[in-house]
Design brief:
mainly beta; Lipocalin; 4-stranded antiparallel beta sheet; about 60% strand
């Protein structure tokens, strides 16, 4: 809810439960909300306690126990204890799916595991998240599927995969 240009939270009866302090805010999801203060994002709980300090340019929602965060134009990941466990070093990055996240470094996409280890090298021009053990990738203007080990599949690509790729 917004009041005097600031965002806060009220209960169903209209009582203020979290003061109107924030420039922007999200809905609560699993007891957490992303809120922006002084142009930086942090996380609060339903009591208004700051769980993650306001030091990020962007914070995505948690998926598989991790959330993608952005600081100084670089992406990394925090865990559910709000610790940055994968340093903000990637040009772009998306949520973990099936244990891997697609991340971009030096204009190429690859995949990392939850320890931050590169498991599929940065050789793709674009890469979608994994679904059912497969990811659609683009390399040298060719679109194809790979397995979680990076092996290329000869399976025909269907339009089901095309929603995220550019």
């Amino acid at each position: 809810m917004q009041k005097n240009g600031k965002m806060g939270y009220i209960d169903r009866q209209g009582n203020v439960i979290i003061d109107f302090l924030y420039e922007r805010s999200s809905h609560f999801y699993e007891g957490l909300a992303n809120v922006q203060l002084n142009n930086k994002w942090g996380l609060i709980n339903t009591k208004g306690d700051v769980l993650l300090p306001f030091e990020y340019d962007n914070i995505d929602m948690f998926n598989e126990g991790f959330a993608s965060v952005q600081r100084n134009g670089k992406r990394g990941f925090i865990n559910k204890q709000f610790v940055e466990v994968i340093e903000c070093q990637y040009d772009e990055g998306y949520d973990f799916h099936e244990g891997l996240a697609n991340v971009k470094l030096n204009n190429k996409w690859g995949f990392i595991n939850k320890k931050g280890e590169v498991v599929i090298p940065f050789i793709y021009d674009d890469a979608d998240r994994f679904r059912d053990g497969e990811s659609q990738v683009i390399k040298d203007d060719e679109t194809f599927l790979i397995t979680m080990s990076g092996k290329r599949l000869d399976t025909p690509v269907t339009t089901d995969y095309l929603y995220q790729l550019e």
